[in-house]
């Protein structure tokens, strides 16, 4: 059965022959045959159910940050969750619960929190991507992590819908504690009510630090490697003399060495070669093996 038959009768947009470089912050990635774009949680649930029943492999795409997609594209279906973007603020001071769906842009949520005077997301200012992706990878900076404010998440696991409370997730550094294949539909976040001006001041301060230390104006996937315990991967890569190292159009940023930037027509192949070289240099000099933070997608849609 082909995909159009499998999804017959569902009110869902299907995009064909999409170039994934148009969907990633790194601006890298080949073609995918089908991209399914549900507009609400119920439809997304039904899509996942039907794909599973028909044994169609799929990859969940949110904001496309923190992700490296092969130049030759991918063979599975892409489930694009950007249409799931409802937000509701429930309860009142001193703290509220924010219900937000996975496709909400993290920065949309951060600026809403600023305007409404809701504290807890200040350190996440400037991080690209969707809320679902941020929770999946427990995004963070400046000592903040999204899991600090998560109360519970509503997911599909092996096709079954379930609500998981934060205390039942074994999350950690850059890891939301979910399983490969889980689809996050929405998240409930607990935020503290405070004066908007206070939040704004903090966000401006963090954003200024980021602008000074990170190449925010060039396409990248964010930090490439995880920080080893007690160390900064960027500092080690810098000390290993890798700043400015280039393969094709991919360069180790001269601003922050844990960012690899796309100078134009960058390719995934070059990105991987640069990762290998940087890892080898750091290993040789410091005897520390760097681990990727970004998700590296294979053509068959497994991620490493
Ligand atoms: N440093 C260098 N050279 C560099 C980069 C950093 O010497 O090229 C030095 C800095 O001068 C500083 C130290 O290393 O003394 C730490 O640098 P920084 O404050 O930039 O923090 P980081 O550990 O490199 C982490 C996160 C970032 C997050 C920042 C700010 C990881 C892998 N990195 O970087 O997160 O934005 O702290 O809180 O956890 C990401 O996860 O994608 C990411 C960018």
Which features characterize this protein?
alpha+beta; globular; four-stranded mixed sheet; binds uridine-diphosphate-2(N-acetylglucosaminyl) butyric acid
Q: Can you describe this structure?
A:
The protein is α+β, with helices and mostly antiparallel strands. Helix content is about 25%, strand content about 25%. It has helices at about 5, 40-55, 105-115, 130-135, 195-215, 235-240, 270-285; strands spanning about 15-20, 30-35, 60, 65-70, 75-80, 85-90, 95-100, 120, 140, 145, 150-155, 160-165, 185-195, 245, 250, 260, 295. Strands 6, 7, 8, 11, 12 and 13 form a six-stranded antiparallel beta sheet that branches. The protein has a four-stranded mixed beta sheet with strand order 1-2-5-3, with helices on one face. Strands 14-15-16 form a three-stranded antiparallel beta sheet. A hairpin with a 2-residue loop joins strand 14 and strand 15 (about 250). The longest helix is centred in the C-terminal third of the chain and has 19 residues, at about 270-285. The model has no long low-confidence stretch (mean pLDDT about 95).
């Amino acid at each position: 059965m082909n995909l159009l038959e499998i999804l017959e009768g569902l009110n869902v947009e299907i995009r064909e022959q999409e170039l994934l470089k148009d969907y990633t912050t790194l601006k890298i990635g080949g073609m995918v045959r089908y991209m399914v774009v549900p507009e609400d949680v119920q439809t997304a649930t039904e899509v996942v159910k039907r794909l599973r029943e028909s044994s169609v492999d799929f990859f969940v795409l949110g904001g496309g940050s923190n992700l490296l997609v092969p130049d030759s594209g991918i063979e599975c279906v892409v489930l694009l969750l950007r249409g799931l973007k409802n937000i509701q603020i429930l309860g009142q001071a001193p703290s509220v619960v924010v219900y937000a769906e996975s496709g909400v842009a993290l920065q949309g949520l951060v600026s809403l929190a600023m305007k409404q005077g809701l504290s807890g997301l200040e350190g996440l200012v400037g991080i690209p991507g969707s809320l679902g992706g941020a929770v999946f990878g427990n995004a963070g900076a400046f000592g903040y992590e999204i899991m600090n404010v998560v109360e519970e998440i509503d997911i599909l696991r092996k096709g079954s819908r379930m609500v998981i409370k934060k205390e039942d997730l074994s999350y950690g550094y850059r890891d939301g504690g979910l399983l490969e294949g889980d689809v996050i539909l929405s998240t409930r976040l607990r935020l503290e009510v405070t004066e908007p001006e206070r939040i704004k001041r903090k966000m401006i301060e963090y954003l200024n630090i980021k602008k000074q230390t990170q190449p925010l104006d060039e396409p990248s996937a964010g930090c490439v490697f995880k920080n080893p315990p007690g160390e900064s991967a960027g500092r080690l890569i810098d000390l290993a003399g890798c700043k400015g190292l280039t393969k094709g159009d991919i360069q180790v940023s001269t601003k922050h060495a844990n960012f690899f930037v796309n100078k134009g027509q960058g390719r995934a192949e070059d990105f991987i070669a640069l990762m290998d070289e940087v890892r080898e240099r750091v290993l040789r000099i410091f005897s520390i093996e760097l681990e990727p933070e970004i998700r590296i997608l294979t053509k068959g849609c497994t991620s490493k």
